[in-house]
Amino acid sequence: xKTVVFALYAEGRTDERFLPIxxxxxxxxxxxxxxxxxxxxxxxTVLKLKKSKPSARAECILKAAEQASGYHALIVHADADxxxxxxxxxxxxxxGFDLVLKQKDKNKVCRQLAPxxxxxxxxxxxxxxxxxxxxVIGTDLDARKMGVPEKSKAVExxxxxxxxxxxxxxxxxxxxxxxxxxxxxxxxxxxxxEQIRLACLESVSAYGQFTAxxxxxxxxxxxxxxxxxx
Length: 230
Hints:
Elements: E1 2-4, E2 6-9, H1 13-34, E3 39-41, E4 45-46, H2 57-67, E5 73-77, H3 86-101, E6 113-116, H4 123-126, H5 130-137, H6 143-146, H7 161-173, H8 189-195, H9 198-201, H10 205-220
C-alpha cells in the first residue's frame, strides 16, 4: 500500500499541535471520497525553522520547501488577520511559493504546495464543533452558556477566537466540581483536532478553500480523480 507523506510549515507551536491532525484527517476524507486505490496517510511532518523577520518569510518558505524535498507535498500555514484570507495569501504565502517555483533544480525543493489559512487564527476551527468541545472539556453546558457560537460558520466572525476558547474553558470550569481539576488551553489542541467532525469544519469558508486546494493537489499527484475541478 502506498504511503502519502506531507510536510507542514506552521506559524506557531499550538498550530503545530492542531493542524497536522486536521491535515491528515482531511486527506483521508478526500481519499475515501475520491481515491481509486488504498493509500496510507502518515501524520504530516512539522518542519522546524528558526524564527525570522516577517520580511524574510518568503525565504523561510523556500527553506521549508528544501527541507520537504522528497515529501509528496508541503502545506504552509498562515493565519488571516482579518475576515478575508486573500491578504494573508498575497503577503505571507504567495511570495514564498513564487520563490520555490523559480528554483531551477526541481529535485532540491518540494514543488507541490498548498496554503492553509484559518480566518483570524487556528483557534477559530477549534470552536466549530460544540459537541467535540463539550466532550474534550468535560461539560454539558450548551454553546450559549459556554460563550461560543451556536453555528459552526459563525466562528469566522469572532474577533479573537483564542479568547473565546479561553472563556469557554473558564465557564465550563466554573460549573464543575473543583476536585476534577483544571484544564490548560494547551491540552485541548490535539484531542479537539481528533474529535472535531469534519462536517462541522466544512461549513467554514477557510476550511472549504483548504479542502479544495488539497483535492487539487492530490489530483495532481494522481492520488484522486475528481470529475469536476474544485
